[in-house]
Amino acid sequence: MSERKIRVLVAKPGLDGHDRGAKVIARALRDAGMEVIYTGLRQTPEMIAAAAVQEDVDAVGVSILSGAHNTLCPRIISLLRDEGMDDCLVLVGGIVPQDDIPRLKEQGVAEVFLPGTSTEDIVRFLRDNVKPRE
Amino acid sequence: MPETKEITSPEQAAAERWEQETVAPVIQKRPERRQRFEGVSLEEVNRLYTPADTEGIDFERDISFPGEFPYTRGIHPTGYRGKLWTMRQFAGFGTPEETNARFKYLMHQGQTGLSVAYDLPALMGYDSDSPLSEGEVGKCGVAVSSLADMEILFDGIPLEEVTVSQTINAPASIFLAMYLVVAEKQGADWKKISGTLQNDILKEYIAQKEWIYPIRPAMKLVTDTFEFCTQHVPRYNPISVSGYHIREAGATAMQELAFTLRDGVEYVDWGVRAGLDVDEFVPRISFFFNAHNDFFEEIAKYRAARRIWARVMRERFGAKSERTLQLRFHTQTAGVSLTVQQPLNNIVRVAIQALAGVLGGTQSLHTDSYDEALALPTDRAALIALRTQQIIAEETGVPNTVDPLGGSYFVEALTKKMEDGALDYFEKIDAMGGMVEAIEKGFPQREIQESAYQYQKAVERGEQTIVGVNKYQMSDEPEVPILIINEGVRESQIARLEKTRTRRDKGAVANALEGLKRATQSGENTMPATIEAVRAYATLGEICDALRDVYGLYEEPAF
What we know:
The structure holds 2 protein chains of 2 kinds.
Chain A: E1 7-11, H1 20-31, E2 35-38, H2 45-55, E3 59-64, H3 69-82, E4 89-94, H4 101-106, E5 111-113, H5 119-129
Parallel strand pairs in A: 1-2, 1-3, 3-4, 4-5
Chain B: H1 10-29, H2 59-63, E1 86-91, H3 96-108, E2 113-117, H4 120-123, H5 147-153, E3 164-167, H6 172-185, E4 195-197, H7 202-208, H8 215-232, E5 236-237, E6 239-242, H9 244-248, H10 253-273, H11 278-281, E7 285-291, H12 295-317, H13 322-325, E8 329-333, H14 345-359, E9 364-366, H15 379-394, H16 409-432, H17 435-440, H18 443-460, H19 489-503, H20 506-522, H21 527-535, H22 540-551
Parallel strand pairs in B: 1-2, 1-9, 2-3, 3-4, 4-5, 6-7, 7-8, 8-9
């Protein structure tokens, strides 16, 4: 029996082009044995949700440093819920002020990873929190 | 097992003797802290540098005197004894009114030049009221959508006297046009105004990725600004070829140096092909480098940059004017090195990085604020950043002598290593057909991604220390106040856009935009038509749409 690999969509919404973090994370997750799809730059919440559905992912990692997280994250989450992807974890990585984190979590963000996070912590978080599937 | 070295000179023999007689017994008693010593670029650094490491370096040919070829020691004979570097803090957030107030505050505190940060919609050529701008207006810089905003941004700032640097790339020619029209309205003479436009589109495809059009038409727009400025705004720098973003994306110091200078060569090639005279337009090309944590490597990088540029301009392009050979650059401390954890530590990092920029002979300097891993800087944080430069300038004595590290065995050997490594990259890129072709193949992009990943791994293995992050962590850190961008910026921008659109002459706008499309299709210089569109208060989004219609959009290949 082969265990299903964890599938993660690494997404870069908004107008910002700083993709160093997204690419490092994508590669680290791949090296940890996960299947990773990277959306490329400037994806709208609609495009991200559609890709998550199509790729049937367990988690979406959203990379943002432009300050647009409060606008973009709730929209991505509500679109995923509309598609019935209730178990799909939404993680945020980037520059997010401390005060915004509780609100993001209330809105359904599973975790926010700030600069300085080890990629191993992110791998561990996914392994611990992705719901096992048939 | 010790390496066997071939000893070919008395200097090498002397160094070898020291290793064996003096070092070996000490290491036997107490091993060194590490097997391999390396800095942020993960390049190995030797135990000691001696005359054996500078054997191939000739003083007159390679080092020479400040103000003389190949300018390794600086472009000014008197260094900072004549004039200190320009303290130019990058600033921009919220509305044009708010940024105008920050500019005036910084100038009142002794800052000597201005530098504008625009928001992401502006960088991508969208108006504040575009649906794509939602959530981003005024966040990463100041919101500007038309000449009306630009008039407010520079209100009370005399553009004939103050030099302004504008960080804008894909829509740079439009911002140049807006700047020139504001200057004209202030009564300034274009022949007298100075300042810098970043306008470096190649590094966008390589690293920062704020592009709009495909590469070749985007290069045509850049070349148009060279030609226009050479004729009409002769003291203005139409480009700042930027390694900063390449480094921030993860490049090593050597890659930053190599890709930036090779980008510079590419712009000169395009200018020459457009019929411009090297000695007329190249003196107005300026550069922009990062100042990262590895102190000596950074200093070597700046010194190598000057030497490479001087030689390449003379040998490859036959430049004759001294000004063409002299590489001038701006420096900014490494945003990527700032930590969220224990943010006050960033003040120290910035001070050391800034010192490297000064010892490397920078013409102007931006010091980052300690809170920039958290948000855009507060007034207080921005002030400490400026004071850091003032302390280096006026308390340390560092500017009293020119190139104080020149002649150091280590710094000279490292400068040579940087130069050799950069020239190896030049060969590879030349073999691909040039930088545009190399970018199309994804070559610099892949090199940078690989370095970024290796660095992250080194941090996670604990081989690279980041104080407060993977060593000396604290669980209970005091919070620092941060700047909150008011969410009302978009509304006030939308209101001004509506007013602008109602008041302007609609026929004039339509004609100007048609004129720009015609100029774009015919291949003539687009600057005059861009200026006409700006004067008619066509918005940034409208002008970019006209160009998007003709040029299309860039699609990043997957790699």
